[in-house]
Amino acid sequence: MDNKAQLNRGFGLTASLALVVGTIIGSGIFFKQGSVLASAGSTTSALIAWAAGGILTLASGMSVAEIGSQMAKTGGLYIYIEKIYGKVWGYLAGWMQVIFYGPAMMGSISAYFGILFVDLFQLPKMWAIPSAIIALAFVGIINSIPNRFSAGFQILTTTLKMLPIVALIIFGMFFGQHEALGQTVTAVAHTNSGGFGVAILATLFAYDGWVTLANISGEIKNPQKVLPKAIVFGLIIVIISYVGVSYGTYRSLDAANIVALGQNTTIHMATSAFGVVGGRLMSVAVLISLLGTLNGKIVSFPRVLFAMARDGLFPFAKTFSKINMRTKTPNAAIWFMIVLGDLMLLLTNPDRLTDIAMFTTFLFYILAFVGVFILRRKDPTGVNRAFSTPLYPFIPILAIAGSLYVEISEILHDFSGVVISIAVVAIGLPVYLVLSKRQIKK
């Protein structure tokens, strides 16, 4: 091992696109149809909710892409927030991702994989957690060898997960027997599910994950140009996929049936369209989709830990800042976060943790979006800006508005979770003070 080794720039545009698309599209598009429709009240409103969530996310992606084009270093939000607001805020952004949000996401995705895996192969329920741990370790191994393999795995899983999405869209559009627009759900279902605002909130969570690409800027070829293209075009692909699958679903099934089926809507649709084999293939596609999403998380979050350790701002920094000489990957950082993911999987409810972490995640998103205005003021000519957000200042304002909506919703619906979320981030402050004092003494 050698700390002087450099990360390998193994992610070109195709792999970067696959990382954005593959990390966002996990299980949400397959299992959120019933809940979004129940909240929206009608298929027309539900489609608008999916489109609105996509537009808000695209505005967010464009805003971060502008910042990323000026700071092509591994670390993502940790680097962006630090450069704009100072080391303390940057550290807290990194701490949140490494200690809380990243492991919770890894644990949650692998847990869901384990549940679906034992259901598909009719194994005893007791094998769900071991299956989840094995899946997490498997993707960890792929990420511990040269990153061309994790890049290739991302391209493969993203391609495979897009096949059923395209099939569902085509089937719904050309063979569906219902009107996609204008269907309504019962008043009881709509009242109990929160309304149109909650529907948009659900889609925003389904769109989350696009920022992971920014964490690996140091491994992207020509990141100033590739990162903005991958984020923007990747999000456009995801928006088309989400709206397309929703439209196909509404064409294939009536609104009442979709709400009644809930999480089983897409599997039922695939079974009806392509038989029992089609339903099983859809389940396999979801498993592959989850592996692709898990790969994106493991590619991304350990790079934040690596960047913090490289700056001496994490315990055992020498260990976590090392890069394997042969593979050019930060293996210690990768496996530390996998262990944290396993602990959350075994000891807590990862789904609940990801919900709790959402408040601080979007809080740092807002800081980044505001940073677009700060950087523009510092560099009005755009000399150092390889990508400029179109329709400025409207786009970053829209991104801020969408994120504020998430924050307000979290405060209103899960105040205890918000308090826990802030507390976990605040714990990082004394850790930072201790580590920064050690650096000063050195």
UniProtKB/TrEMBL annotation:
Gene3D superfamilies: Amino acid/polyamine transporter I
Keyword Transmembrane helix: yes
Keywords: Membrane, Transmembrane, Transmembrane helix
Compartments (UniProt record): Membrane
InterPro entries reported in the protein's UniProt record: AA/rel_permease1, AminoAcid_Transporter
GO cellular component, one term: membrane
GO molecular function, one term: L-amino acid transmembrane transporter activity
Keyword Transcription regulation listed: no
Annotated transmembrane regions: 12-31, 47-67, 88-115, 127-146, 158-176, 196-218, 230-250, 270-294, 332-350, 356-375, 387-406, 418-435
Topology with respect to the bilayer: Multi-pass membrane protein
PANTHER family: AMINO ACID TRANSPORTER (PTHR11785), SOBREMESA, ISOFORM B (PTHR11785:SF512)
Protein name per the record: Amino acid permease
